[in-house]
Design brief:
The complex is a heterodimer of chains A (436) and B (250).
Chain A: H1 11-23, H2 31-47, H3 62-65, H4 78-85, E1 97-102, E2 105-106, E3 119-123, H5 124-130, H6 147-155, E4 160-164, E5 174-179, E6 187-196, E7 201-209, E8 214-223, E9 228-235, E10 240-249, E11 254-261, E12 266-275, E13 281-290, E14 295-304, E15 310-319, E16 324-333, E17 341-350, E18 356-365, E19 371-379, H7 383-390, H8 396-412, H9 418-433
Parallel strand pairs in A: 1-5, 4-6, 5-7, 6-8, 7-9, 8-10, 9-11, 10-12, 11-13, 12-14, 13-15, 14-16, 15-17, 16-18, 17-19
Antiparallel strand pairs in A: 1-2, 3-4
Helix pairs in contact in A: 2-6, 7-8, 8-9
Chain B: E1 3-12, E2 15-25, E3 30-34, H1 41-49, E4 54-63, E5 66-67, H2 73-78, E6 81-84, E7 91-95, H3 96-110, H4 118-131, H5 136-140, E8 142-143, H6 149-163, E9 167-171, H7 179-191, E10 198-203, H8 207-211, E11 216-221, E12 224-229, H9 232-240
Helix pairs in contact in B: 4-6, 6-7
Chain lengths: 436, 250
């Protein structure tokens, strides 16, 4: 007999089930979407919250971390919207098209919806409710059995639906701002869908400053052939933040992602990226800055489904205090994906003896003519370098700051957009100066 | 007296390296320290600069009569101590220009001086770099990253020229240099000779001293100075070798 015996449900699991039972009639979308929700919820019912015995969640035991489930966020009132609207952004004055989401709900009245050729922007809840044909792609960009994604699909509320037409060049970055509005702790299940047409170009920034709320965010991103897409995810979340990128990248595309995380309590950023056509160049990068008891988990599943693609995965984390950084990077090269060129490098800088970094790179290669490699390092600042700087008159604190900045900077320097690059470097410097 | 090293005993990881070293260097003087491998030359350089891990068990190091042993490396630098490293380290991600400016301004700040304005500073760096054959491209690159051995040594002299120390300690500055590079480095050092500045030139070989002519030569063996003399002492060592001192320090 092969029966999975589940332990008693935790209170968070029970609360999530109750939330789904109560909300299912009111959640946006009928027919196919309702079926998708049911199937996803059934998946969650069987598996429960992911825990440490689930390999992919080994270092981020959601069942233990999620003591309880907060109620679903109510639609924001005027006060909540006003609070969210004032939320500070790391991007500062970088010229962007801002779309505001308050406790997960799209706020069109506080968003820049000025028309632009080739660009369609709307809210997910609205699109699901209307049965907009675009949302037929929901759940299909990168299919996965991951339970966090299943939970998101079951309870998905609002988010962005963006379409960039074939050949369109979107000048300003599109800045999706997810901000906390309500003062009461709440949960939000955000779902966005972004479809970038053939040969189109766009820069996307998803920024979360979700207060102390529980957030489960999923973004489905379909990158068309020959498209050029730069996607940034900036996270400053004091609550529990689980985010999934589900991406499919077409042939000859140029695709870059950059995850910047700081001042966050518990973050799991998981990226599922499939190269669905040949000749793509991708840079999957990120920087995490941790202190105190913060926990940031970066998990990648990079699927080289087609050959002749090049991917570079580069992640750096700086860990102070008793923080815990996790990097799990799996690169899969499927049979016939010949001439794949994938290189993954992760480096953790430990500033304290109590900080912990777990690095788990994995390569699964089923093709024989490929170039793949990975490397991982974890260590303290080099005392020889520190002495060299100090021997020139630079104080110990300043020497450390300079070396940490350089460590982070090497990855941030790869960002093409000057304004965003500068804003992230500034955020890193601010984080460092708060170190005192 | 600018530098006084008095009966200095130093251990590294429990191993005794300096063994009652006494040395005095006057303002304006260039003192050569010569000695065989393992005599404690580099240890002396590191102890003067304040590298952690070197335990002083006895004796003192005075700069202008003030003990520096309790000062961290950056405090000593602000007091005017500079070490030109035998093996300059690569500092990825920190541009040479940024490094120089940060160092100079940190020292000026520690001394209660105003930070140097950028255009003046850039002019100073560019002029000095030009004389040392350091290109503008190298100044934009990360400190010593991808530099050849000779370029690294020239970069040390550039830093010395910008920081204008009162006591410069040059640790085997000639090692790994071909004759042309050696001449450039020596010229850079000679330009910095000044009545207010002392230099301690540490070298294994006499060759460097043809280009940087010392006022005095001290021979180091087994962790102490065993002989002192004029510049002719270096030539004598070149001819006779260090074997004659093997027993004297024992």
């Amino acid at each position: 007999m092969n029966v999975e015996v589940r332990a008693t449900k935790t209170s968070a699991e029970q609360a999530l089930a109750a939330a789904y039972a109560a909300a299912r009639g009111a959640l946006p979308g009928k027919d196919a979407i309702a079926k998708l929700r049911e199937a996803a919820f059934a998946r969650f019912e069987v598996a429960g919250l992911p825990h440490r015995r689930v390999e992919e969640w080994k270092y981020t035991d959601l069942r233990a971390l999620m003591r309880n489930a907060y109620p679903l966020a109510p639609p924001p009132d005027a006060a909540a919207k006003a609070r969210a609207n004032k939320a500070a952004s790391i991007l500062g004055d970088v010229d962007c098209r801002r779309l505001l989401f308050v406790d997960g709900a799209f706020a069109p009245d506080l968003s820049d919806l000025s028309p632009e050729p080739g660009l369609t922007v709307g809210g997910m809840a609205d699109a699901l409710a209307k049965g907009d044909p675009q949302v037929s792609q929901v759940g299909k960009v990168f299919e996965t059995a991951d339970v966090a994604v299943a939970l998101n699909t079951a309870l998905m509320g609002d988010g962005a639906v963006i379409r960039v037409a074939d050949g369109a060049v979107i000048k300003r970055p599109i800045h999706l701002v997810f901000a906390a509005g309500s003062e009461k702790p709440s949960a939000a299940f955000l779902r966005s869908l972004i479809v970038v047409g053939k040969g189109a170009r766009v820069t996307l920034v998803e920024e979360h400053g979700s207060g102390s709320n529980q957030v489960n965010a999923a973004l489905e991103l379909a990158v068309g052939e020959e498209a050029e897409v730069d996607y940034f995810k900036i996270t400053r979340a004091q609550g529990l933040h689980v985010a999934s990128l589900l991406a499919s990248v077409g042939a000859k595309a140029k695709f870059n992602t950059f995850a910047f995380t700081c001042n966050s309590s518990v973050v799991r950023n998981q990226s599922f990226i499939r190269f669905a056509g040949e000749g793509t160049h991708a840079g999957i990068r990120g920087v995490s800055l941790l202190r105190g008891k913060e926990h940031v988990d970066t998990t990648l599943l990079i699927d080289h489904a087609k050959g002749h693609c090049e991917s570079r995965e580069q992640f750096r984390s700086v860990l102070d205090g008793e923080s815990h950084g996790v990097f799990q990077g799996k690169i899969v090269v499927e049979p016939h994906a010949q001439k794949t060129d994938a290189k993954m490098m992760t480096r953790a800088l430990l500033l304290s003896d109590e900080a912990e970094a777990d690095n788990k790179p994995e390569l699964e290669i089923f093709a024989d003519d490929v170039v793949c490699g990975h490397g991982a390092t974890a260590g303290a600042l080099d005392p020889g370098l520190k002495f060299y700087l100090m021997s020139r008159g630079i104080s110990e604190r300043e020497a450390e700051a300079l070396l940490i900045q350089a460590f982070i900077g090497e990855t941030i320097e790869e960002i093409a957009h000057e304004g965003i690059r500068g804003a992230l470097m500034k955020a890193a410097v601010d984080w460092l100066s708060a170190r005192g | 007296m600018l530098l006084e090293v008095k009966n200095l005993h130093v251990e590294v990881e429990g191993k005794k390296i300096l063994n009652g070293l006494t040395l005095a260097v006057e303002k304006g003087q260039v003192a050569a320290i010569m000695g065989p491998n393992g005599s404690g030359k580099s240890t002396l350089a590191y102890v003067l600069a304040g590298k952690p891990g070197y335990q002083v068990t006895e004796g003192d190091v005075l700069l202008d009569g003030e003990s520096v042993l309790d000062m961290a490396a950056d405090e000593r630098a602000a007091k005017g101590v500079f070490l030109a490293f035998q093996y300059p380290v690569e500092v990825p991600g920190v541009a040479t220009m940024t490094f120089l400016r940060t160092a100079l301004n940190a020292q000026r700040k520690a001394r209660g001086e105003a930070e140097l304005m950028t255009p003046q500073f850039i002019k100073l760096v560019n002029e000095t770099a030009g004389k040392l054959g350091i290109s503008a491209d190298m100044l934009r690159r990360a400190v010593n990253v991808g530099f050849s051995g000779g370029e690294k040594k020239r970069n040390e002299i550039l830093q010395m020229a910008v920081l204008q120390p009162r006591l410069a300690v040059l640790d085997e500055t000639d090692s790994g240099l071909d004759i042309d590079a050696l001449k450039i480095v020596a010229e850079g050092v000679n330009r910095l000779r000044a009545p207010e500045r002392a230099m301690v030139v540490i070298t294994h070989y006499q060759r460097l001293l043809n280009f940087i002519v010392p006022d005095v030569v001290h021979v180091l063996a087994r962790g102490r100075v065993v002989k002192s003399g004029g510049k002719e002492l270096a030539l004598e060592l070149e001819a006779k070798g260090y074997a004659q001192f093997a027993d004297e320090a024992a």
